[in-house]
Write a structure and sequence with these properties.
Elements lengths: L1 H15 L4 H24 L6 H8 L3 H7 L3 H5 L3 H13 L7 H15 L11 H8 L2 H25 L6 H26 L4 H22 L5
Helix pairs in contact: 2-3, 6-7, 6-9, 7-11, 9-10, 10-11
């Protein structure tokens, strides 16, 4: 938990230099609310904590909480917008001679090397998954989050496809998200069963490559 927070803070430090004071304060408030919520959920369970209690712990009003997080579930699953941004930016900002598949494979490997939460590989993450598994509301929101990433990725692939919008890019997006999810879930299950990140990282990397190799064989136009 502490290591992940330090990595996150380091990653945004350079970004913060380009933000206005107002934007920095807004980001800091959002992060404080999320951190306080996470601690409360970890201690008592998601369904047993109210938004008012989160607001009190973060020293803000309930309205401020909802200004940053439209739904209670987003207090905990606060990386869904980040996942959307990562996946779509990888496709939209790729080099002219780079395929969507190659850009997304590189993203998956970069997240792994950074031990980013979206990679699934860290000894700090099982506590997070247990909270999600214990809450029907969080499980439902997580599924919605996957669908949001899929739709946004489909839009990005359609926008950058030579033939424009159509079934091909959206099918590629659906299969890419499904493949990534399968790799993520397989690693999460091993860590939840008690294995250490060091024991699964090489296999995770191999499965990332295997997933994208299979996608490129199945969808050569998208590769």
């Amino acid at each position: 938990m502490i290591e992940e927070t330090e990595r996150r803070d380091s990653a945004v430090r350079g970004e913060d230099r380009t933000l206005t004071l107002r934007e920095r304060k807004k980001r800091e408030t959002r992060q404080r609310i999320s951190d306080e919520a996470t601690m409360l959920f970890a201690a008592r369970g998601f369904d047993q904590v109210t938004v008012a209690e989160v607001a009190q712990a973060a020293h803000v009003s309930t309205m401020t909480v909802f200004n940053h997080f439209p739904r209670k579930e987003d207090l905990f699953l606060d990386r869904i917008p980040e996942a959307v941004e990562f996946f779509t930016a990888a496709v939209r900002d790729r080099a002219a001679d780079e395929s969507p598949s190659a850009a997304l494979r590189a993203l998956a490997l970069r997240l792994l090397d950074q031990r980013h939460p979206l990679s699934a590989v860290s000894d700090d993450f099982p506590y997070f998954w247990r909270i999600v598994l214990d809450s029907p509301a969080l499980r439902a929101r997580a599924r919605e989050g996957v669908e949001e990433v899929e739709r946004a990725l489909g839009d990005a692939m359609a926008e950058t496809a030579p033939g424009g919008d159509g079934p091909g890019p959206r099918l590629a997006a659906t299969l890419t998200v499904a493949a990534y999810r399968a790799v993520y879930v397989a690693t999460a299950r091993r860590l939840l069963a008690g294995e250490r990140a060091a024991d699964v990282v090489d296999d995770h990397r191999a499965r990332v490559h295997g997933a994208f190799d299979a996608l490129e064989r199945a969808l050569p136009a998208a590769g």
